Amino acid sequence: MSTKLLTLFTLALLTFTCLAGKRGLAWPWNGQGQDFNLFLNSSSISWVYNWELWRPGSFPTTKFSYVAMQRTASGIGNLPAYFPGNGASVLLGFNEPDISSQANMSPDTAVGYWPTFNSISQQYGLRIGSPGISNGGNGLPWLQEFMTKCVGCKIDFIHCHWYGPNFNHFKAQIESVHAAFPNLPIWVTEFALQGSPTASQQAAFMTEAMAYLDSASFVERYSWFGAFRGSSGNCLIDNNGAITPLGVLYSS
Fold first, then answer.
1. pLDDT of 220-243, one tens digit each?
2. Which candidate, 230, 236, 210, 209, places its Cα nearest to that of 44?
3. Domains and CATH numbers, the chain
4. Which residues are registered as beta bridge partners of 19?
């Protein structure tokens, strides 16, 4: 092989490796261990989170990395007890604090809790994700206020979600978040079409969204919602524990 061809091959391999590392599994708290087997042959999926601090049972540690989350303020005093036993090297901030039915807290309240994140990061060398905002009208303003007030806070990347009608809406939201925080990479840890789209509609959206996320240099990781069993059009696993066509697409 010529030097030029070898260089091109190496660059292509490095590019593939970077893209493959972005994709993850949003795993339900009651997910079944055997369901991991459905994704073990995927070269695209590299990490898993479950909105919790405990690693799921039967977790394939040689295949995937585990990402922990402090979902709400409840039990935050016990946060240090989960490390390093859960094997995580990344900790996500609160889940949708801008929504009353989720973490439900003001930016000031979240700032008050952040010394705990700073401390656990310093002790165990963890990367820390911001609170994970929704794409509702309050999400981005909430995060902008938090980031302005959280002086000295350990934040390694921005963590956000999206549910909406189409790809153009999705892209506009992700780029709005990037424009607000241009110096930090983004993790999109939940995304899917909203409402009751068919599996084929979800698949068409997923195809376009993944191509965009893989090509966007400021997007570091992403995970589809979600890697759970069910009959809705966005499930990666069906009720019988078989991978869905959408799951096959996501794994490819």
1. 999 999 999 998 889 999 999 999
2. 210
3. 21-251 (3.20.20.80)
4. none
